[in-house]
Description:
single chain, mainly beta, 2 helices
Amino acid sequence: MLSAEQLHLTIRYLGLPVVNVVMTDNGSVISVQAKATKIASIAAKMDNSYISEYKDNYLPISYKKVIDQKDYEENRVTEYDRDILTAKRSSYLDFAEDRNYAIKSESRDFFSSLYYLRTICDQPFGELWLDANSLIWKATYRMIDREILKTEFGKIEAFKVELTFQQISQAKKENTDMLTNNLVNEERSLIFWFSNDERRLPLKAKFMMKPFAVTWKLETYHR
């Protein structure tokens, strides 16, 4: 994938845009900014940033999160040592949150997993290893259909890919950010639509919450 790619997505609930997300990939670093829209900020504040420094196949070297949400803040970095299959988490807000924990050889954070999935979304099925807030999950993906989507870029054929999750770590889930790790849930699936072309654009996503689904929609794309 070429460098200097930027994606702008909106997260929608009940048809209303509630979060603006801008994702940039420069070839070695994925940077993400997520901010609540004016409509949503009345009920729920969000101004989050994520930085994933990666190497081949989007395997992260480090992952930094700065979370500023209503009733929750987080500022931490996780460094991955794949030689000894260990991650080191360091918090800049509370040293009691520091820890080391075991990882898989191909553990990825949410965003590096998404970018890697784009490269393999045409495969019929497979597995990913996800590090969601220091818990290791197995994500099983399968291409369930090909559909024609009406998008901001016209009608585009897309791979429809479903992900289901199984928690591998035995520890309990911690409080975390609303944007990423809360999407990883054994009781709900996550569905992506990727363009069937060389760009593999994440045109749409749907998270099957109750009583209403949350959707992601790609608004603009630059490279």
